[in-house]
Amino acid sequence: MKSKHSNHLRYLGKNRSQIMAEIGNQSNNYLSDIWSCHIKTNWFGMKTLWIIFFENGKVCKIKIKKTF
Fold first, then answer.
1. pLDDT of 25 above 90
2. Residue 60: which of 16, 30, 27 has the closest Cα?
3. What is the 3-state secondary structure (H, E, C) of the chain?
4. Considering only CA atoms, which of 56, 8, 63 is closest in space to residue 35?
5. Are the beta carbons of 51 and 65 closer than 8 angstroms?
6. How far apart are CA 54 and CA 45, in angstroms?
7. How far apart are CA 57 and CA 68, in angstroms?
8. 47 phi-psi bin (left φ>0, alpha ψ -120 to 50, beta other)
9. Average model confidence (pLDDT) for the chain?
10. What's the pTM?
11. 25 pairs with which residues across the strands?
């Protein structure tokens, strides 16, 4: 089952306000150029995070990180 956040490429080029409206603030500093977003935790406890990079106020890159 895919969540509504599974297609991270659709967020490229969006500004901070658009990102916050879709995924929420999640305690990110609004003016920061790097945000983190918790996407899911599987049954084993592994977390999937997006690291969102902004350039000139728009999303330029999203990295997916899996961690415990």
1. no
2. 16
3. CCCCCCCHHHHCCCEHHHHHHHHCCCCCCCCCCEEEEEEEECCCCCEEEEEEEEECCEEEEEEEEEEC
4. 63
5. yes
6. 29
7. 30
8. beta
9. 89
10. 0.83
11. none
